[in-house]
Design goal:
heterodimer; A: 169 residues; mainly beta; Glycoprotein, Type 4 Pilin; OB fold (Dihydrolipoamide Acetyltransferase, E2P); eight-stranded antiparallel barrel; four-stranded antiparallel β-sheet; 1 helix; 16 strands; 6% helix; B: 503 residues; alpha+beta; five-stranded parallel β-sheet; 18 helices; biotin (chain A); Single_hybrid_motif (chain A)
Chain lengths: 169, 503
């Protein structure tokens, strides 16, 4: 089974091949290295993973398409998709910074400022919308250079986590 | 003065619970106040009584003096503890409490007035002979006057809001050509944040340490200090890690700073718990920065090394009891506190409110977690993001660092993102371990602290994420109804199954 996994901050997803061997055993190949993995799922979704005799206690938290993976005090944010989902999401522009990009609210809050209009040309990293949460103002930036084609954010309105705010094409 | 029987805690979150805990131990009844966003908060359940005070924004609930006073009256409370933030340093609220016959557990309004506005505090301290950072004692009227002053004391300087606090509205100016624009932006920030655009100027000290002294006074003029706290690990002028003793203070410097802090408190007839904040420069000269006329967030580290309960002392002082101590207790061992915030350091510290789906709090010897959260609690997005204070005690600084790391490794919070990994990176940073870190430490080490990722763990996380996704897909397939072509029966369609049974 082939998956594509993208660590936060990386632009490209890496192919990861997983072969279930039964009895909680897996053969996983990533970046040219093959691992024998013993991965036992425990209650509450915790994963006890043994790789080359090393033990990892792994906790997950899901946030939209992104998976927060906590092990040994380190949190990695990883986006995983199989080929079918990858194709679907490429169409929705969620997996790569190519094509249409949807900027969503990263947390529930209030839109305090909308910095762009439909039709505006924006640069990569340019502020699009300011959302206030927990007494902090957070400027959401454009993931790419392009044109604002859709605008859902309205000043003064409350937004939920993952609410659609702006589309940049 | 009569004994206090019932205290209304005019606050929320961990500090409300902290105060209530001591009240309970002293046999004092407690009253909570809560906004619409806080009906399910822990402080409401911890109290004996709880009174609703209004909508989620604090300016419509926790900050409305009359609502708090009415709540106290309704509950029959005889005293109010303000915690920190909200109304804790509001002199008009103290006067309103006095007028309503309620004991305010904190300093008198006159002491708050003297220390509240920073320029007035500076003037008072200069009069009392306390060293202050070179700068103006009055808000500066015009940009020309400001520029002339800066030319006299030299760059860099800090522009600060006279009515400010919490690092808001501060601007550092390093080049004369930036002066005018910084001046304008400091004034508009001050107006926005505090409704007062008065700005004053202070000389900017290079690589200063932020060291503060805890003071305590009774109503009879007996004033002592309870040693220092090193608070130089700051981000955007907000403290992230605090410790005591300060790794840069000698016993002589401690005694000298303590003496000056006591002088500062006496100069304004202080009563109760207060903190005198200083900047210590590279030559170990120290300068008065400001006085916080309340209990501080970081009070647990002082409690660990002195063995005192500062809230109990506040209550006794408010009741008119005499201070039992005549001098600062010698610091016993070492204590570190880290602030756990609902925020995501990897995304520019973006706040992360939401439901806590799973929580495992650290324990073990000499570990204390002051928190207001629990599994299933939804961290609201209208209040500040601090959800817990983890503090530890150990005989030495090295052991305290190791213990904090151990405790943080046990801390699991799911559902929201926290800064726990960032805190661990701070404690593992060589500069922090060395103990000589100044107020620019977190800014300077920003990339190192955020990039402190073990590549092997990242690879393992990748494997785990793929296994997790695979297992989830398998579960989903199993639960799909067989008729839709799912694998509820091992991937076999009902038609084929029917055929097989016939055979």
């Amino acid at each position: 089974m082939r998956y594509f996994a993208k660590q936060q901050g990386q632009k490209e997803a890496a192919p990861v091949d997983l072969e279930p061997l039964g009895n909680d055993q897996y053969k996983i190949t990533v970046n040219g290295t093959t691992y024998q993995v013993d991965a036992l799922e425990l209650e509450h979704g915790t994963l006890s993973m043994l790789v080359d005799g090393e033990s990892y206690n792994v906790e997950f938290e899901e946030n939209g398409d992104e998976l927060g993976v906590l092990l040994r005090g380190q949190v990695n944010r990883i986006d995983v998709a199989d080929e079918r989902r990858l194709r679907l999401r490429a169409a929705n522009a969620a997996f790569s910074v190519e094509g249409k990009q949807l900027v969503t609210a990263p947390m529930p809050g209030k839109v305090v400022k909308v910095l762009v209009k439909v039709g505006d040309e924006v640069k990569e990293g340019q502020g699009l919308v300011v959302v206030e949460a927990m007494k902090m103002e957070n400027e959401l930036k454009s993931p790419k250079a392009g044109k604002v084609t859709e605008l859902f954010a309205k000043e003064g309105t409350a937004v939920e986590n993952n609410a659609k705010l702006v589309v940049v094409e | 003065m009569p004994k206090i029987r019932k205290v209304l805690v005019a606050n929320r979150g961990e500090i409300a619970i902290r105060v209530m805990r001591t009240c309970k131990e002293l046999g004092i009844a407690t009253v909570a106040v809560y906004s619409e966003a806080d009906r399910s908060a822990l402080h409401v359940r911890t109290a004996d009584q709880a009174i609703f005070v209004g909508p989620p924004p604090s300016r419509e609930s926790y900050l409305v003096q009359q609502r708090i006073l009415d709540a106290a009256k309704q509950a029959g409370a005889d005293a109010i503890h303000p915690g920190y933030g909200f109304l804790s340093e509001n002199a008009s609220f103290v006067r309103a409490c006095d007028a309503a016959g309620l004991t305010f557990i904190g300093p008198p309004a006159s002491a708050m007035d003297s220390m509240g506005e920073k320029t007035r505090a500076r003037a008072n301290m200069i009069k009392a002979g306390v060293p202050v950072v070179p700068g103006t004692t009055e808000p500066v009227a015009s940009v020309e006057e400001a520029r002339a002053y800066v030319e006299k004391i030299g760059l860099p300087v800090m522009l600060k809001a006279a009515g400010g606090g919490g690092g808001k509205g501060m601007r550092k100016v390093e080049r004369m050509e930036d002066f005018e624009s910084s001046w304008r932006s400091a004034k508009s920030a001050a107006l926005n944040a505090f409704g007062n655009d008065a700005v004053y100027i202070e000389k900017y000290l290079e690589k200063p340490h932020h060291v503060e002294i805890q003071v305590f006074a009774d109503q009879y003029g007996n004033t002592i200090h309870l040693n220092e706290r090193e608070c130089s690990a700051q981000r955007r002028h907000q403290k992230v890690v605090e410790e005591t003793p300060s790794p840069i203070l000698s016993p002589e410097l401690r005694a000298k700073m303590g003496e000056v802090a006591v002088k500062a408190a006496k100069a304004v007839n202080y009563v109760g718990a207060g903190t005198v904040e200083f900047l210590v420069d590279v030559h170990r000269n120290f300068y008065f920065l400001e006085m916080n006329t309340r209990l501080q967030v970081e009070h647990p580290v002082t409690e660990w090394v002195t063995g005192l309960d500062l809230v109990a002392m506040q209550i006794r002082a408010a009741e008119g009891e005499k201070l039992g101590l005549t001098e600062a207790p010698r610091p016993n061992g070492h204590s570190i506190e880290v602030r756990v915030y609902a925020e995501d350091p990897s995304r520019n510290f973006m706040p992360s409110p939401g439901k806590i789906t799973y929580l495992r709090v650290p324990g073990g010897p000499n570990v204390r977690d002051d928190s207001g959260v629990f599994p299933g609690y939804t961290v609201p997005n209208v209040y500040d993001p601090m959800i817990s204070k983890l503090s530890v005690w150990a005989p030495t600084r090295r052991e305290a660092i190791a213990r904090t790391q151990r405790a943080l490794s046990e801390y699991v919070v799911k559902g929201i993102t926290t800064n726990i990994r960032y805190l661990r990176a701070i404690l593992a940073n060589p500069e922090f371990i060395e103990g000589d870190y100044d107020t620019s430490f977190l800014t300077r080490q920003h990339d190192a602290l955020l990039g402190a990722e073990d590549p092997k763990l990242s690879e393992m996380a990748l494997l785990a994420s793929v296994v997790h996704t695979y297992q989830k897909d398998q579960k989903r397939l199993k639960t799909l109804p067989a008729a839709t072509g799912g694998q509820g029966n091992g991937g076999v369609s009902p038609w084929k199954l029917a055929l097989r049974t016939r055979r």
